[in-house]
Amino acid sequence: MISVDEYRARLAASLPVLAAERLPLDEALGAVLAETVVTRWPIPLFDNSAMDGYAVHAAASQAGARLRVVADLAAGSPDDPPVAPGEAVRIMTGAPMPSQADAVVPLEDTELGLAGAAAGSAPPDWVTVARAPVVGAHIRRAGEDASAGEPAVVAGRELGPWQLAAIASAGHEHVIARRMPRVAVLSTGSELVAPGAVPARGQIPESNSVLVTAALRAAGAVVVSATVVPDDEDSLRVEVERTLGDAATALDGERLGVDAVVLTGGAAVGAFDPVRAVLGAAGSVRFDAVALQPGRHQGFGVIGGTPVFCLPGNPVAVAVSLELIVRPALRAMAEHAEPERPRFRLPAVTGWASPAGRTQVVPVVVETSGVAPVAGRASGSHRVRSLAEATAFAVIPPEVGLVEAGDLVEVILCR
Ligand SMILES: Nc1nc2c(c(=O)[nH]1)N[C@H]1C(S)=C(S)[C@@H](COP(=O)(O)OP(=O)(O)OC[C@H]3O[C@@H](n4cnc5c(N)ncnc54)[C@H](O)[C@@H]3O)O[C@H]1N2
Ligand code: MOO
Q: What fold, for 343-413?
């Protein structure tokens, strides 16, 4: 048996890195930044008002001061009107500060209150300060968020809504990034019927391709196909060749191919399991017993440059393998700086036994007092329904044989 860490390290060493592309921002969601984006200018670009109100000289704007309104500034205005002590410029949020003013009195701090900026209204001729500002009040300073040339988003970051907004603010409409892999999913098993079909004796609804597809999509990968193959070598061989053949196919400049393949089932030792026979025979996929529970039977290889992951068939084992092995690998292929989800330490609410010498991964519910195994039981790699209640995995190291109530355990929040 090989440890989980050793197995993962071996995969990491042979994973290919995907090519970086130049992507417009509206196609970059979920991609991983390949080149750090630096701001073209300071953010904010210029000193501007944080409030709708009046730009003033603070020293001449004590409570009760009556100021003459000499100009009106909307956001987007290029004007820089002069303003002397005893004068005010009506200013809206985001408008550049007049260079001679040193504070903003919000509408609410004037006697006229919010009426001083009713929609479409002209500024009043005079404004009376109700509450004196301090120097610098309500001014957003140029460069206080970032200076010009500073990194806006660093390479290795996944581009989510927050990162994309930062890049746009930094003055860029394209990024150099790696999209997450395109993956083909193959579920093997002669017992499998479509989820809506009524199973005959011996048959079960097919759920692994649903699980794998959804988990990969949630990880930002693109699932190009999800196919169910019966347990016979010829069918599987045809399907694998077709899938891997796609990897090389490109038509009309469109990338049709797959970057990775994920199979489920047939990874153990069963008499009718064709996965080992078909993929192991070529010598490029190596099957291992990994010290992981569930998820003992794993296969991995790179065929013609395409990584192929063979996961065991039991649904909870599939969920565990996706989280600990496949997801980090796919993120690493896109050069994600953090391929793994963070782990937290939380107390166990109840105790449970863990197999000696194997890393145990337990679907848990997270409560205010800590974590508890779903339905009160730690193991059961077939229990796909109980998986629905879990929101996290507890990861118990090989040397721990018994988790006791109150023990701190490592937890990966999965949603
Ligand atoms: N003699 C041994 N038997 C088993 C061992 C072992 O070491 N020695 N390991 C057990 C463990 S652990 C696992 S996990 C399974 C793994 O077996 P396979 O990877 O060959 O998977 P299958 O036999 O194809 O299926 C296992 C189980 O999962 C159900 N299944 C499979 N595919 C799907 C699907 N797409 N949707 C829903 N359910 C699926 C399948 O019906 C089986 O019940 O082997 C143990 N046996
Ligand atoms: O290892 Mo199996 O993958 O325990 O259910």
A: Beta-clip (2.40.340)
Dihedral, 23, 333, 338, 314 alpha carbons, nearest 10: 120
Q: How many CB atoms lie within 10 A of CB 357?
A: 12
* Torsion, Cα of 161, 162, 167, 171 (10° steps): 100
In one-letter notation, the amino acid at residue 374 is V
The pLDDT tens digits for 114-170 are 877 776 788 999 999 999 999 999 999 999 999 999 999 999 999 999 999 999 999
Q: Residue 161: in which H helix or E strand, if any?
A: helix 161-169
Least confident residue range of 82-96, 180-194, 254-268, 295-309: 254-268
Q: Where are the chain's structural domains?
A: 4-18+180-333, 32-43+145-178, 48-140, 343-413
Upstream peptide bond of 44 is cis (omega within 30 degrees of 0): yes
Whether the Cβ atoms of residue 31 and residue 177 lie closer than 8 Å to each other: yes
Closest atom of ligand 1 relative to the 293 alpha carbon: 12
| C-alpha to C-alpha distance for 386 and 409, rounded to whole angstroms | 20
| CATH architecture of the domain with range 32-43+145-178 | Alpha-Beta Complex (3.90)
Cis preceding-peptide flag for 363 (omega within 30 of 0) = no
User: For atom 3 of ligand 2, which residue has the closest CA?
Assistant: 295
User: Ligand 2 pocket test: which of 264, 287, 296 has the largest number of ligand atoms within 8 Å of its C-beta?
Assistant: 296
Class of domain 48-140 as given by CATH: mainly beta
Phi, psi at 184, each rounded to 5°:
-100, 140
pLDDT tens digit string along 314-334? 999 999 999 999 999 999 999
Confidence at 251, pLDDT banded by 50, 70, 90: very low
Ligand 1 site, residue 47, Cβ cutoff 6 A: no
Cite the DSSP H helix spans in 249-360: 274-275, 281, 315-321, 327-333
Mutate to test the pocket of ligand 2, among 293, 309, 359, 386 (most ligand atoms within 8 A of CB): 293
CATH of segment(s) 4-18+180-333: 3.40.980.10
* Maximal C-alpha separation, the chain: 93
- Rounded Cα distance, 108 and 110, in Å: 6
* DSSP state at residue 377: -
